[in-house]
Design a protein that fits this description.
With 50 residues, this protein is an all-beta fold. It contains no helices and three strands. The radius of gyration is 11 Å and the shape is globular.
């Protein structure tokens, strides 16, 4: 199976809220809540809200 892919990384700051959309090879495709911008974030840079 093939799928469209973009290598766009999403720049975020500590405390920014993102919506997780899907994961691939240690990266998560997310949407930044404040702007609606989407891109990849390394999984090690993410934490869940508690």
């Amino acid at each position: 199976m093939t799928a469209a892919y973009t290598a766009k990384e999403l720049n975020v700051d500590a405390g920014d809220r993102v919506v997780f959309l899907h994961e691939l090879n240690g990266w998560s495709w997310c949407e930044l809540e404040s702007t609606g911008e989407c891109g990849w974030i390394p999984n090690e840079c993410l934490s869940t809200e508690r």
